[in-house]
Structure formats: C-alpha cells, structure tokens
Design a protein that fits this description.
61% of the residues lie in helices and 0% in strands. The chain has helices spanning 20-45, 52-60, 69-82, 90-111, 123-134. It is mainly α and 135 residues long. The radius of gyration is 25 Å and the shape is elongated.
Length: 135
C-alpha cells in the first residue's frame, strides 16, 4: 500500500490525524512497526547480528550473501594454486591446504558444524584455533 501525504495537511503538533486517510496511514505505520519488530526477533533467534541492513533485508525478503570461513579459505587456496611456479611453490600451496584441513577439523570439533559464517569469526575464535593447532 503506497501513501502520499500532502505536507500542508499535517499538524506538526499532533502526529495522529483524525481523517479516514490519516487513520489508514497510522494503521499501516503500526503494522510495519510490528513487522519490523518480528523480523528483529527472528534475527535474534537465529543468532544473527541486528543491523539496519539485516533488518531491511529480512523485512523485504532478501537473502544476504553468507560467506563462510572455509569458503573463503578455499577461494584463497584456489588462487594460490593458480600462482604455483609464478609467485608460490607447490609446497606453500600444500601448507595452505593443510591449514584449511586443520581449520575444518577445529570447526567440527569445537562447533559441531561443517563451517562457520564469517561474521562469527571473533578474536576468541582465533585464539582457540591457535591453541588447537599447538596441542
């Protein structure tokens, strides 16, 4: 439902109008406010960060591109593989692959998941991964 309100009919001291049209607009605004609150609740229940963009995308039904740490690591390693004998050696590529495997093992052991959303990578995640590698 699209509304256009003529500014001259607005009363700056009273945001609630008395006309039928004003009541419809206010009801529509209240409905949207309720729906936004529901989307914020859904995001919170899913453990997602509550940002204006996340709320807007949820409200509009848009999917945010989810990037994961292993997905990015694999892209990185594919780029390294293309540069073997140009900028990197095959041994360097193998070390990156071993590191990716260790990271995958760590995620499975610590988080009981196959991968972790990039937005979930924190300082704590890195510190525990370092400890995992050393033990």
């Amino acid at each position: 439902m699209n509304y256009f309100i003529v500014p001259r009919v607005l009363d700056p001291l009273s945001p609630l109008g008395k006309t039928k049209e004003a009541k419809q607009v206010n009801m529509h605004i209240n409905t949207i406010e309720f729906q936004l609150g529901e989307h914020i609740r859904f995001l919170r229940e899913d453990g997602k960060d509550i940002t204006p963009r996340a709320v807007k995308n949820s409200f509009l039904g848009l999917e945010e591109e989810k990037r994961t740490i292993l997905q990015i690591f694999e892209e990185h390693n594919e780029n390294i593989k293309k540069l073997i004998d140009i900028d990197f050696s095959a041994d360097t590529y193998q070390k990156y692959e071993a590191c990716r495997r260790h990271l995958a093992d760590y995620i499975k052991k610590k988080y009981k998941q196959d991968d972790v959303d990039l937005s979930r990578i924190t300082h704590e995640f890195i510190i525990y991964f370092e400890t995992f590698l050393k033990t």
